[in-house]
Write a sequence for this structure.
């Protein structure tokens, strides 16, 4: 299973100022597999320690004497740990916070030793750590489920992948190619990007087998909740886990998620799901300028699930004949897909944050699905499940923010056009003019390059 994240590991390995790497990501997104494959292909030897499988090894990290730790790990593993030749992989490191602390001393006393760590509940552990974090002595990187390009690669659609990577606006996409890409896109909607689900589909070409994997992953996520707190908190987490897929693309309201519970309890549970990276929250960015983070409404956010395939499984959509399956959540699925792909963008050392814009006024509400930054300018992004859809909110946003370029994703072929229209803002009618770039959903991972190329022409 080829992962684009491996390219980042290659660049990390060859850096002059390389530091121990901490990989953060939800359970079962492929962290362990990716590191192991990278180690096998790029090192003479590697030593893996899994703190959940061998909890007795936590004892070795109760000291900060890294020379002694290294010697003990060599004796235990039966392998020499040699600078620049061996990769030391500390897996499930959230189970041993002391090991996180020792990374500082490994960096200071053994800077040429290559160390990668990973964990599925790391954010939760780092937030609760009672020890001093090795600030400035470690690097962080972030992994997500397989994106659409990695999915195409798994399906061996290499030529389609190359076609998308080199597509430019104005170049025609023939109807048969367009329809094929939409079929694969729909397949991704329901299989998703969890590596095990993709692997099973590629191996067996059987969608019911994918359902079994999805159910197993959901259950494992629920079992993890036992590590979070009290039984009542675990029950709220399970309730939220099952609710979030129904609320994708909508402002999150505590009363809708669990009307019988206090909002504070639901809020705490939602933050725990966020720290476990099962849920991502798109924040409401009110600012007309950059950075988007500078003026967000902390009380207004939209949830996205970890994976579109898992979301559909929770919604109990049977994967029998997905081409003819029309759901009431088509718009939400398209928004989940775009959001999931935006999060997966490199560079991997950045913890990506999603934003949207909403104005809540009586008889004058408006919302933009996503807002992002491109070339030091805000870029509004609208997502449509079909080929058409109203752009009233976009017209209002472009008028208020005085922007010149907007992006729309839909299921039509690519196009670019000048929008010149009248829009009513409050009681005033104003003229709005901007360039609207429309791209099919399957080109989301190319939008930055396509827009930049267009601007350079």
């Amino acid at each position: 299973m080829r992962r684009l994240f491996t390219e980042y590991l290659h660049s990390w390995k060859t850096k002059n100022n390389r530091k121990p790497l901490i990989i953060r990501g939800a359970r079962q997104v492929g962290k362990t597999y990716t590191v192991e494959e990278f180690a096998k292909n790029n090192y003479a030897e590697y030593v893996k320690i899994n703190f959940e499988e061998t909890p007795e090894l936590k004892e070795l990290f109760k000291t900060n004497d890294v020379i002694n730790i290294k010697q003990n790990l060599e004796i235990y593993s039966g392998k020499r740990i040699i600078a620049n030749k061996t990769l030391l992989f500390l897996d499930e490191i959230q189970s041993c916070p002391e090991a996180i602390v020792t990374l500082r001393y490994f960096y200071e006393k053994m800077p040429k030793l290559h160390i990668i760590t990973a964990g599925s509940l790391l954010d939760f552990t780092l937030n609760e750590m009672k020890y001093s974090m090795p600030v400035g002595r470690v690097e962080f990187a972030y992994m997500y489920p397989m994106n659409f390009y990695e999915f195409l690669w798994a399906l061996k659609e290499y030529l389609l992948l190359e076609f998308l990577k080199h597509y430019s606006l104005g170049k025609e996409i023939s109807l048969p190619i367009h329809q094929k890409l939409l079929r694969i896109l729909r397949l991704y909607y329901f299989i998703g990007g969890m590596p095990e689900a993709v692997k099973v589909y590629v191996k067996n070409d059987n969608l019911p087998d994918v359902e079994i994997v999805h159910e197993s992953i959901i259950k494992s996520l629920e079992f993890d909740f036992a590590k979070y707190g009290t039984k009542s908190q675990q029950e709220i987490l399970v309730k939220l886990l099952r609710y979030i897929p129904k609320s994708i693309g909508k402002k999150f309201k505590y009363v809708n998620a669990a009307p019988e519970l206090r909002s504070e309890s639901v809020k705490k549970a939602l933050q725990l799901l966020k720290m476990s990276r099962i849920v991502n929250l798109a924040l409401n960015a009110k600012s007309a300028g950059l950075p988007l983070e500078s003026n967000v409404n902390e009380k207004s956010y939209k949830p996205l699930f970890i994976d579109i395939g898992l979301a559909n499984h929770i919604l109990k959509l049977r994967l029998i004949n997905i081409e003819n399956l029309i759901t009431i959540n088509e718009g939400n699925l398209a928004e989940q897909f775009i959001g999931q792909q935006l999060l997966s963008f490199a560079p991997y050392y950045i913890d990506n944050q999603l934003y949207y814009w909403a104005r809540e006024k009586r008889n004058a509400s408006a919302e933009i699905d996503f807002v992002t930054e491109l070339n030091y300018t805000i870029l509004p992004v609208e997502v449509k499940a079909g080929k058409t859809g109203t752009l009233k909110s976009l017209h209002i946003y472009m008028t208020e923010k005085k922007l010149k370029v907007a992006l729309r994703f839909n299921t039509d072929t690519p196009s670019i056009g000048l929008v010149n229209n009248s829009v009513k803002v409050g009681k005033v009618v104003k003229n709005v003019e901007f360039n609207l770039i429309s791209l099919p959903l399957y080109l989301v991972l190319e939008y930055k390059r396509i827009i930049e190329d267009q601007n350079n022409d």
Q: What stands out?
A: The longest helix spans residues 207-224. DSSP finds 17 helices and 14 strands in the chain.
